[in-house]
């Protein structure tokens, strides 16, 4: 009895101590018919200091760019339990401060305005559905990021909620383990369509929000793709790192963003209507991140510093290897066949090899400088670098070990050694490969990761019985834009360009190219890219209500005509000029602002494209640009563009060992 009473006293004292500790309870409310803002608040119980500082994140992990969302945090108020307002002041752009004044309970409230429409995988709020994105929406207690928090979600009648947060006994009340979990876990709301299944004994949920409508595609087939991908990845990693997982899909198109126990993915309703597996690529990519980057991460990416850019040399692994394994996992799940696997990598490797920047910018450099320039849309992407190098590395390991070891072994070893709080450094990866497979790739990493030497694709692809050959060709001049308007493919032709000289005009409705009917802008681009220089190609167009045929003589593209032009605030910025290119040697650089060509002032991107497209091979060009604060004049002669391509196809003479490597890679055996 005495022991029992003593234990009761101990537990009472512990309970009192816990009760007096600082606690957080967040609430977000979506009001019926109100799509202007999320109404948010946080109740702070028993604050352990007088000055309370709450901040909004400057960036979202997985999305390496500044959000600039602080201007959308409005109506910030601090109140006491009796409703009295407490003075709130601002510290910089990201932080709001107020004094608790010794009170045991204070509340901070705010509105997150202008969440936007359902157009991608990011935050939105409509009258029929919503996706709350944590880094943009929540204010976090910057001095106590270790605290767990309850989160209550209030939604209109008929709406349901899906999230990766931990559930509680109460509907729509969840738990975040700490600030990183709070900001990491998005919340999907609306009239959700859901499916669920178990993988490795762990519940997995698929939730779809389609603007209040039921999905116009086969939901069971859609969820089955998720199940096969989840099972395949769990098999590769030999287990799952989460207690539950939720796929959060929203209509409107777009990409995806990874989270610890969920992913947000934008989907195209029209694509899914004809193919319920149309989401398989982005789904496989985002799920793989549950291991690679959310847990196996570069050292600098955690604990997170939300105040500004956080740099690492290893995004080519965190994102690029994930892109590599996207195709591997789809093949092993039976969602693409061996031919589709080879075609996917042939396309990526050919694109990579044709890009002059691939021989200038190393993967470590593109990873490090992602915050500084438009690399994802510019000269080179660490996604593609890591994808193709992942294949080369995997094949090299399999070749040297006679298919006894693979990159799978190295990834599992790195996960076991570095996942969690410690993280890995760039040099840990090559050492991890050596430790787990016995293959020393230091020289490969020095040449192709730290530097940007050209990869010997014929050698590496031969390891899996695939033949690769380089060819040089002159691409056609195809300065033309196409878009589908009311079911018709309408074109915009730059005045003075090669296609304009052949007789095509802006506003033409394009019906056929070379005898092939066209129904989409992508089809037009593919047909244009496949035209042979010097050929006569009939274009059937509808002009002024009359059908006519324009005989296009295909001209060669010029090096200047293929320069990409990016739109600045009110200027045209050149990009994609590789340092090994003749244009660069003549004096033009990526980032130059184009001011004039042969005395013609350039007023913006459209004018720049028109003037450059009008130049023929042999035409002299006096080009004036601004570089930083200096104006520079560059004189050169437009030359025919030369594109080096790589043809990739299965080798009919492949050895049994090479075929075995290819099949074990694709099948996971």
Provide a short characterization of the protein structure.
With 669 residues, the protein is of the alpha+beta class.
* Overall residue-averaged pLDDT value: 91
The main sheet comes to: 8 strands, mixed
How many helices does DSSP assign? 19
In what range is the share of β-strand residues?
25-35%
Distance between the termini: 62 Å
3D structure, described in words:
There is one protein chain. The protein has 19 helices and 37 strands. The chain has 669 residues and is of the alpha+beta class. A hairpin with a 4-residue loop joins strand 31 and strand 32. The strands form nine sheets. An eight-stranded mixed sheet has the order 7-6-10-2-1-14-17-16. Strands 31, 32, 33, 34, 35 and 36 form a six-stranded antiparallel sheet that branches. It has a five-stranded mixed sheet with strand order 19-20-21-23-22. The N terminus is likely disordered.
Which features would summarize this protein structure in a list?
19 helices, 669 residues, disordered N terminus, six-stranded antiparallel sheet
